[in-house]
Amino acid sequence: MTPDAHDVDRGAGPAVLWPQPVLDLLARDPGRPVFEDGDRVVTAGEMAHAVARVAAGLRAAGAGPGAGVALDLGVTPEAFAATVAAFAVGARVCGVPPGLAPAQRADLLTRADVTVVVDEARLSDLLTSAPHGPVVAAGRPGDVARITWTSGTSGRPKGCAQTYAAMSGAWVPFPERWPAAVAALAPRLARFLVLGTLSSHVMLEYSVLALTAGGVLVAARPPGYPDAIVRHRATAGVITVGRLHQLVRAQREDPADLSTLRALLVSGSPLAPSRLAEALDVLGPVVFHGYGQTETGMIAMVAPEEMRSPAVLTTVGRPPAQVDVRVRDGEVWVRTPCQAAGYWDDPVETAQVFVDGWVRTRDLGEVDTDGYLHLRGRARDVVIVDAQIVHAGAVERVLEQDPAVAEAYVVARPDDLTGEAVHAWVVPAHGRRPDVEELRRRVAHALGVVAVPQGVHVVEHVPLAPSGKPDKRALVEPLVRS
Known about the structure:
Helices cover 30% and strands 26% of the residues. The protein is an alpha/beta fold and 482 residues long. The protein has three domains: 18-140, Rossmann fold, CATH 3.40.50.980; 170-380, Rossmann fold, CATH 3.40.50; 382-481, ANL, C-terminal domain (GMP Synthetase, Chain A, domain 3, 2-Layer Sandwich). Strands 5-3-4-6-7-16 form a six-stranded mixed beta sheet, with helices on both faces. Strands 14, 15, 17, 18 and 19 form a five-stranded antiparallel beta sheet that branches. The radius of gyration is 23 Å and the shape is globular.
């Protein structure tokens, strides 16, 4: 898989090979704190030494340009060092998403053609390796640098493959390339909460941005909001739409001291303008609302100060100059400097989404006369649960495998806990009565817990649209009225 021309630092001068900017940052000021984990503070020099040790261990294990390294790690200073080291040796790096069914995890590691799997035990061994001098980025521009896997709720994890050329073209470690909204965000990342996994595209991107802006990464313990903000005196963090709703509700009912908070980056499912306005009213001018995809990276972002205009609340911001946006037949197509080159080991899906240097977002939208991007819906049938995409068709197929189910239909519904939730309607097979809990167990086993329907509704028939096709909107109407 090779990069297209747009993968290489479009219009920004010669690319510095990823992750050399991070290695240079760590070397520049060895005494600077870069990572806090509880009472432990790790300096840039200590982090650089850990990167060198892990890199030496990976090379000894056969990892280098063209080899696959899977990271099955949480959020620790050592996990950050392992992530940087795996890129530094030029490997093809993939994270193992949490919540995969065992069969999906095994299939993912097989498909990724992995040479080394780094879990916590293996990482401890790698850290005992003797370093071989300063680490220098060794990747090859045309090689795949990163495979970012989806949750597997299409039935099989799908990997976005990003080349070293594409990662080297990113704006994150270069202040002179920051779009306006990012330049407004960066100074607020002085104490940036890190949670989940560093293999997350969003978490790694904003961690590097925080370090570039002079901030410190802070492991969120406990991970939840608002407790982590209060305990760690955090200034910024990433939050899903569902957790933002919970935080706003908690602040209304029993306010915590969030005086240190300066930025929350909303990730995942769409945020309704009314809920965005409410969040700004309750939390203050700290909410950064944006739009991006694993396939593309950031497409647009809007800063809190811009959202003083009610019209801007209905948008996801202006795409920066580095991002090309076109609307074709109502669908948003984009080109970004750091977009993926395709899907790993999936030429059919690659051909459908990556077309002539453009990425089909499969989202519907329009750009207004002021250059702001408005999203109008989806061209694909998905539910976004806690920022993870669940494909409705995959859940429907699993439900229909139950002998008691004749037909199954899945729809997204707004949810204050997860942003959106999966809801299913099933028509019983003749003379049978579906066991709702068995259906949920079946989905969990096949697709993981994120895809489990919150509601399973048994109906005798499904209403039809004038076209004669099942009318999913009519199925939802009773819930909307209740």
